[in-house]
Amino acid sequence: MPASKATQATEDLREEIATLRKEFAEMMELVKDKSGSYAEDISETVEKSAEAVYEKGNLGLEEINERVRKNPVASLAIAFGVGYIISKLFSSDK
């Protein structure tokens, strides 16, 4: 009789292990699905942010172009002055 109880306990353990494996596989599938959804959400957010930055950059460039068209001489003088200052800052003749 004791061998029968041991055999039954072994079978019960095998069934529990099989059930645990199945549940673990289901949980991993859920985690995989959730992480994929989360990654898609992040990707969409990054894409929208990049589009917004691109649009703001274009608006800024358009504004600068308009100012240069309205005041070409002043724009040229400012560009020359900034270039001169940068060249003095980076010159090696200190």
TrEMBL record:
It comes from the Bacteria. Residues 3-30 form a coiled coil. Keywords: Coiled coil. The keyword Coiled coil applies. This is DUF883 domain-containing protein.
